[in-house]
């Protein structure tokens, strides 16, 4: 698309009315096919001219890696309502790992082993408390304004849980369920301690919730939506305990944090507190709400909080009415156009960018001015807005290249727009010659999230941009009614964006971060000392009985288990504790028991356990499911259940 056309063309479509937006939203959200007719019309034409005009790799950096060549970045991807997280190598786009988080996974035994169940949480009968999850946003821990490779976090929107992934093992080690909220959507770790400014690394994770519910949600106030509320939640990054919550007016969506640790922000699309979408679209402006973290923590210390129902978590009052005086306010509400989506902090630490979604604009909010407002030095909160400029239809999320440019997804236009923040501020300030739109690129199709390499750190390096397209339509071989989504890779190292690759992805990733590979140091084997149940020596293998509880202490060493057979009686509650005594990196064994729903793996120097009721007499060949050795097929043991 010619870039000259863009700005004037936009003016014609300036601030579409609610009904038009509704139509567009309908087009956007109903079917993939019609979705592509709007923004994607030219794009579709482009793509059918197609493969031939597809960007030659010579035109951008080659994303391909030769066999055996490692990638330059880790891509940490959410998996949407698959409930998992994924790890891609970039720029190649090769999928390296899937990390089960809120889902069951019989490859590793997530949701099957006692250890994973303890993390997931169980019902009194020992089954997982929840079976479903919906991961949207992945963010990683910071030190000195950049990733420190300790942790990543991901949210579960369905059951309002926050999960932590250790980045030395790429495994989930803790899950916390947030009380008193529904529709937990945006997350962001703080980038340094908001209270003790000497602590220059992540200490807390902030969580926004989209849906209003009664407090407590125990059957009261069912038909009184005006009594529903939404809470912003702070979770301790180390203990993963919920520290406090803050009640606000309106709802929350995405979350971003400032580089000085002092502020967290969330875009609000439902300041109307509407129940139906028409109500949620009725106001001309919604808001971006800012949380003054140090003040909130002081209020908690001073005992200025309530609790909700059975929850012990302190809840402070961040509503407008309670925070009219800026000098004591816990929250600040910056008005932004209609139903914004996405808020992102620029790597120069100066601005928050809130995208318009139903307005074709992005709003640039200046961090220093927000702090000035909290200090009582700014008479009008609207003065925190450094720019509000038109970008195109359906702006959602923004990434940065570290050279002053922002890249925003335009969902309805099926486009990426590259724009210069400083020029946008000039333009908004009255300099109509300022050309802030630098480039436009059609994408296939309807992008939601985007992110650039190291974008949300002080080390944004402006190399690669990934675009999470919600529809792939005709880009891949058809596989029935459900199409994959299309993660597109764009070279942003030059002035123009160059689209270099498409990758089909299984539904449905939302957000992702792209982390330089040297930020992450993984371990090669586990440490038996970390497992209290570990069997240190195969000679200790044994069957222990206490009443009808039987414990099998078992080891694996390729190509055999340490017990050739183990006998139990019908009705016994059996726990198998399996330690993998192999020490070689990647020498993983599996353990499956037919008819008993048991299957899991143990990595080198790791211990895991399962518990089941031996309710079916007979012979059950426990076998190794993970290819480990030339005699892998022979790696078996007999479970004998006597009647
Ligand atoms: S959302 S398409 Cu779940 Cu991050 Cu914006
Ligand atoms: Cu052990 Cu396969
Ligand atoms: Ca609204």
TrEMBL record:
NCBIfam families: nitrous_NosZ_RR
Catalytic activity annotation: N2 + 2 Fe(III)-[cytochrome c] + H2O = nitrous oxide + 2 Fe(II)-[cytochrome c] + 2 H(+)
Main location: membrane
Subunit annotation: Homodimer.
Lineage per the UniProt record: Bacteria, Pseudomonadati, Pseudomonadota, Betaproteobacteria, Neisseriales
Cofactor: Ca(2+); Cu cation
Similarity comment: Belongs to the NosZ family. In the C-terminal section; belongs to the cytochrome c oxidase subunit 2 family.
Entry's transmembrane regions: none
PANTHER family recorded: CYTOCHROME C OXIDASE SUBUNIT II, NITROUS-OXIDE REDUCTASE
EC number: 1.7.2.4
Function: Nitrous-oxide reductase is part of a bacterial respiratory system which is activated under anaerobic conditions in the presence of nitrate or nitrous oxide.
Domain Cytochrome oxidase subunit II copper A binding: 547-643
Species the sequence originates in: Pseudogulbenkiania ferrooxidans 2002
Protein name (database record): Nitrous-oxide reductase
